[in-house]
Amino acid sequence: MRTARRIAILALVGGALVVSTTVWLPLYSLGPGPARDVEPLIHVSGHPAYPSQGRFVMTSVEFSQLTALGALLAWLDPNRAVVSRGELFAPGETSQQERRRAISQMDQSKLDAAYVVLSRLTGYPREHDPGALVESVVPGCSADGRLFPGDLIRAIDGTLVRGSAAASRIIESAPSGSRLTFDITAGGRDQQVTLVRRPCGGEGKPLVGVSLIPDFPFEVRIQSGDVGGPSAGLMWALGLYDLLTPGDLTGGRMIAGTGEIGLDGTVYPIGGIGQKVVAAEKAGASVFLVPKGNYADARNAGADGMTLVPVSSFQDALDYLLSSRSRGAGAGA
User: Fold this and answer.
1) Helix (H) or strand (E) run with residue 22 in it
2) pTM for the complete prediction?
């Protein structure tokens, strides 16, 4: 009898161990991801480049689905957070769809960063090359899944596009229900895409579903690899600004940071700030630029020996770096 009871208990324990390590829960672990030097990933043609002696570093977050045992281990790790699936995925979204969305957000962040910097350093957006760049796409509209941030629209229905305003006029003059053929360059390849202008995206008026900006006055290429999401915008902007201007904006330091950037230079809060602080510390950064809305949480993450600098705009970050560079140190904030 005792032997049978022991066998039953062992079977229950064994079954529990199997379930705890093989059954996936709708929970995910967030942890510090790689910290990457942005300037070597930025390439310009047609404008002088001035490499920096220091480093601008973007931080990232890695996430993975959890089993029951994995969730327990993640809860015990002070550098990791456990979140529900709903905090990372849209309703009904698959892992592949989330990945495409994250890459699209990253591509938009690179465009927005370049727009902000070129607007300050050149005659852009008034001075630009022909064509219009897709800055973002409206979910649920005809362009969704057909056009992507960074695609260059060269012509619409055979009419050459001279700029984003011209492209918008052509689209808006087409009656609702019209099929428009776009000649685009995407990923270095020329192709055609046909889209329908119709009411979509919660709007009562007909749309193709794209937001456009003028093509850049010279070539700017940013290689983000497999990193997704919108939160590298601020660091792309600072890296590009430093590359296009004489001198060393870093003051020879490793400057880490995060923050989504808007076309007007506003820096917006992001997720995973605690894990990004840890990633910056591990990389050896002396300064961490943090969106103002994330500052309290960043301080709670315990950035020992690293100066936290709250910023609400690209100009805030630029002002801090210029002033601290002249002092030769990262002043506390």
Assistant:
1) helix 2-22
2) 0.87
The DSSP code sequence of 139-166 is TTSTTBTTB-TTPEEEEETTEEP-SHHH
pLDDT, tens digit, 9 for 90 and up, residues 56-83: 999 988 877 778 777 778 777 777 777 7
DSSP symbols for 280-302: HHHHT-SEEEEEGGGHHHHHHT-
Higher pLDDT, 226 or 229: 229
CA 285 – CA 17 distance, rounded (Å)? 41
User: What pLDDT, in 10s, does the model give residues 294-309?
Assistant: 999 999 887 778 999 9
The whole-angstrom separation of Cα 183 and Cα 181 is 7
Please state the domain extents for the chain.
2-120+220-327, 129-215
Distance of CA 226 to the CA centre of its chain: 11
Q: CATH homologous superfamily for 129-215? A: PDZ domain (2.30.42.10)
Task: Determine contact, residues 133/214, Cβ cutoff 8 Å.
Answer: yes
CA distance 182 to 325: 47
